[in-house]
Design brief:
GO terms for molecular function: DNA-binding transcription factor activity; transcription cis-regulatory region binding. This protein has helices at about 1-15, 20-25, 30-35, 40-50, 55-60, 70-95, 105-130, 140-155, 155-160, 170-180, 190-210. It has about 220 residues and is mainly α. The protein folds into two domains: about 1-50, Orthogonal Bundle (Arc Repressor Mutant, subunit A); about 50-210, Orthogonal Bundle (Tetracycline Repressor, domain 2).
């Protein structure tokens, strides 16, 4: 309850949010916060832990109906992963980057990221299930491509680095790109055309910044 109430306040106020504001939002006495958490920083750490938890993402993926078609399942998977990524990014943007980790912390972070990746890959491959025979790659590779594509076309920092303002791409367009590529045929052309135009604009921006002709 306290963590859930703190999350939106951190997004709005950053680290300047007061424990009084948190207590009011959570409907508890301010002293209750410090009976549960050693400090405000410990509470912030708990919010970050939940925001980046792959277990939360996994649970949302497990809620996707296995009765729907493969494409529908992939669209919902992309929607979940995209939303979780954007939520994590906006929270970090609000509170600022974490302190430079020590070498031991880097190793722990790397190990955790690898474990998280395995957890999500397992959830995605389970959702693909017997429909893996419809794909030209195995389910594990499909899971990697799905997560990578969502990141590449949805992460705000990726667009910012290229000097391009790109709204989070519709999950249906992401899955059309993943399943059908950029070939022009009669399947969901509208979604892919919009996505292709965005990529073309990014490519032109890159070419301009590098002083070379666009492809």
């Amino acid at each position: 309850m306290i963590i859930a109430a703190t999350d939106p306040l951190l997004r709005e106020h950053g680290r300047s949010v007061s424990t009084k504001q948190i207590a009011e939002a959570a409907g508890v006495a301010e002293g209750t916060i410090f009976r549960v958490f050693d400090s405000k920083q410990a509470l912030i750490d708990a919010v970050l832990e939940r925001a980046f938890s792959s277990e939360v993402t996994r649970q949302q993926l497990l809620e996707i109906s296995t009765e729907s078609s493969l494409r529908e399942r992939l669209v919902e998977m992309a929607r979940v992963i995209q939303q979780r990524m954007i939520e994590s990014f906006t929270l970090i943007h609000a509170i600022g980057p974490p302190a430079e980790p020590k070498e031991d912390d880097r190793r722990k972070l790397r190990d955790r990221m690898m474990a998280d990746a395995d957890l999500l890959t397992e959830a995605i491959t389970d959702l693909i299930g017997d429909d893996a025979d419809q794909l030209r790659v195995d389910a594990t590779a499909a899971a990697y491509l799905l997560r990578s594509t969502v990141f590449a076309v949805s992460h705000p920092m990726v667009a910012w680095v290229h000097g391009f303002h790109l709204e989070p791409t519709d999950p249906e367009a992401i899955i059309d790109l993943l399943l059908y590529g950029v070939a022009d045929d009669d399947r969901s052309v509208g979604n892919r055309v919009d996505l292709a135009a965005a990529f073309a604009q990014i490519s032109q921006s890159e070419a301009h910044s590098c002083g070379r002709p666009a492809p």
